[in-house]
Design goal:
Order of helices and strands: EHEHEHEHEHEHEHEHHHEEEHHHHH
Number of domains: 3
Shape: globular
Strand content: 15-25%
CATH architecture of the largest domain: 3-Layer(aba) Sandwich
Strand order of the largest sheet: 4-3-2-1-5-6-7
CATH topology of the largest domain: Rossmann fold
CATH class of the largest domain: Alpha Beta
Helix content: 40-55%
CATH superfamily of the largest domain: NAD(P)-binding Rossmann-like Domain
Length: 380
């Protein structure tokens, strides 16, 4: 039985992971759960799954939980996340949002735990640092993102064969086919209306700007040790082919399935074995009968090239890009800026940034804070 720690248990990925565990109680034991502020939800999860430790956002929330669960180890804040990452378990599912996932992932790897990674920003900001430590500790980083899980599956049994390129598929988001003029007055509700996937608000906005795909390019570079010029993006609006690998003989292997995050989550949690699933199968005569592929419009969705350029420049650029994006997406969700202000101001911060080469988690987090400070100065 695998002991599982879920970082971000009340979010979309965390809740779906608990669905899988609920259906496979003979295979998994939940030993830890965390949330930022959805305390009512985590209390229900504690009652059902009886973890040995939890972490919440504030001391006040920790006290509230302690009043009901006196025998439970209760931690809080960013330091609490780092501490809970050290508890005894077999695998850590990192379903946290944003840069907050970096430090606990690093601590979990230091402790020798395998990582089921749904947090893109861990590798976008700390790719070199994290992957080097994982190699040193003999730790597996198992991708949960549907695209990276697809590539991971395509490479199974093919790791000694030369790759020509990785092909990340993109739905195109809610604004596929839109012009710059169309995006001038996009509302928050329109940007959150993803055509295929049900996700958290931040990643849904990233999908709308296509920064999500840019982040995935950087993540793929570190997960699979493939340079950026061997990673392509193809718009595939049906989200049936989740990604592909082309080999040196031009053969292409793809992973297909309906858009359902429970599949890559379950594979990562139970790897190397698959779990039976009662969900719907792909019907090639209906849903899968017409698959479309398009080039991404990089003139409209400039975040794609911003991300490629950050990857090529290396060093601190991906960190600064990621921090600026997180801050701007939060502002957009609050209605403080327009949709096109997101790429415009990411690029501005990148242009004004004095590059460096961070070598510690602390240096990365300081760069992240600096990029957010720059954004606040620009906007406010």
């Amino acid at each position: 039985m695998k002991k599982v720690l879920i970082l971000g248990s009340t979010g979309s990925i965390g809740c779906q992971a608990l669905d899988i565990i609920r259906e496979n109680k003979d295979k998994f034991e939940v030993v830890g759960l965390t949330c930022r502020n959805r305390v009512d939800e985590i209390i229900e999860q504690i009652r059902e799954f009886s973890p040995s430790a939890v972490c919440v956002g504030s001391e006040e929330d920790a006290s509230r939980i302690k009043a009901e669960f006196s025998n439970l180890e209760i931690l809080y804040g960013e330091e609490g996340l780092i501490q809970i990452a050290k508890i005894e378990c077999d695998i850590v599912l990192n379903a946290l949002m944003g840069i907050s996932g970096l430090a606990p992932t690093f601590e979990a790897i230091k402790s020798g735990k395998d990582i089921a990674l749904a947090n893109k920003e861990t590798l976008v900001a700390g790719g070199n640092l994290v992957t080097e430590l994982a190699r040193e500790k003999g730790v597996q980083i198992l991708p949960v993102d549907s695209e990276h899980s697809a590539i991971f599956q395509c490479l199974e049994g093919n790791k000694e064969r030369n790759i020509k390129r990785l092909i990340l598929t993109a739905s195109g988001g809610p604004f596929r086919g839109a012009s710059i003029q169309d995006l001038q007055k996009v509302s928050v509700a329109e940007a959150l209306n993803h055509p295929n996937w049900s996700m958290g608000s931040k990643i849904t906005i990233d999908s709308a700007t296509m920064m999500n795909k840019g982040l995935e390019v950087i993540e793929a570079r570190w997960l699979f040790d493939v340079p950026g010029n061997m990673i392509d993006i193809v718009v595939h609006p049906q989200s049936i082919i989740h990604s592909m690998v082309e080999f040196e003989d031009t053969s292409i292997i793809a992973q297909l399935g309906l858009p359902d995050m429970r599949i890559p989550i379950s594979l990562a949690l139970n790897y190397p074995h698959r779990l039976p699933y009662s969900g719907e199968s792909l019907d090639f005569f209906t849903t899968g009968s017409k698959l479309i592929f398009e080039k991404p419009d990089r003139e409209v969705f400039v975040c794609i090239d911003i991300a490629y350029n950050a990857l090529e420049a290396g060093g601190s650029y991906p960190v600064v890009m990621n921090g600026a994006n997180e801050e701007l997406v939060a502002m957009f969700l609050k209605g403080e800026i327009g949709f096109l202000d997101i790429p415009k101001n990411i690029q501005r911060v990148m242009n004004e940034h004095n590059p460096s080469n961070p070598t510690t988690v602390e240096e990365i987090l300081n760069l992240d804070m600096e990029s957010r400070r720059m954004i606040k100065e620009i906007i406010y």
